[in-house]
Write a structure and sequence with these properties.
21% of the residues lie in helices and 29% in strands. With 212 residues, it is of the alpha+beta class. Residues 1-11 have low confidence and may be disordered. It has one domain (61-211): tt1808, chain A.
């Protein structure tokens, strides 16, 4: 999607308030700092954390609709990747150390067999997955399409899906020349045209089955 279409999208995913979190100043966070955080340092605020460009971001915890959509995406990708012995599928919360100053937890990610031994460890992925999927809500759309899209592109993620749970659409983007280029916005009975998971006979509306 062109930048002009998303530049005014608002988000509530913001740099974290560090007043009650022990760690370095913003812009200096690394995986080691992230790993030192308590399991949920602000449980009463219902937030989860990621690092992009050394900045610790706080995002709201996902709601039920979000998790149902994530569940269906994980189910179909597992059916066509893991069960076909093409790679592995992971679902959040699972850390991806995607750069020296970036740690994210994509909603769903795929690592194909060629990369499994290179980037997958028992407790996190270190490097760029082949496919990343983010299920966007009004709270996270801007973050998913700016900060996260940019860091995924810089890291070399081959394919990025932004799934709009409210609009029931799946935007498929592929990396070309260091930038994600749109392939198709899928909805209804549109097939998902993945280049990473080729031949996957899944239509967009199957990801939203629990909403019907």
């Amino acid at each position: 999607m062109a930048t002009s279409m998303i530049e005014h999208v608002q988000t509530v995913v913001l740099p974290a308030n560090l007043s009650d979190i022990n760690g370095p100043r913003q812009g200096k966070w690394t995986f080691n700092d992230f790993a030192s955080l308590p399991a949920n340092p602000n449980a009463e605020k219902q937030q989860r954390y990621e690092i992009i460009d050394g900045v610790l971001y706080a995002a709201p915890l996902p709601n039920e609709t979000h998790q149902k959509v994530v569940g269906w995406i994980y189910y179909y990708l597992t059916s066509h990747v893991r069960l076909a012995n093409r790679g592995k599928v992971f679902v959040a919360p699972f850390d991806v150390e995607i750069g020296a100053d970036a740690v994210v937890q994509p909603d769903v990610l795929v690592v194909l067999n060629d990369n499994l031994g290179c980037i997958v460890t028992p407790n996190r992925v270190i490097g760029a997955p082949d496919l990343v999927v983010e299920v966007s809500t009004p709270d996270t759309t801007g973050y998913d399409r700016r900060e996260k899209q940019d860091v995924y592109a810089r890291a070399g993620v081959r394919e990025y899906w932004v799934v709009d749970a409210a609009a029931e659409t799946v935007e498929v983007m592929v990396l070309r020349g260091g930038t994600f280029r749109p392939v198709k916005v899928c909805y209804g009975k549109s097939l998902i045209p993945s280049k990473v998971v080729q031949g996957m006979p899944v239509i967009a509306e199957q990801f939203f089955a629990d909403k019907r």
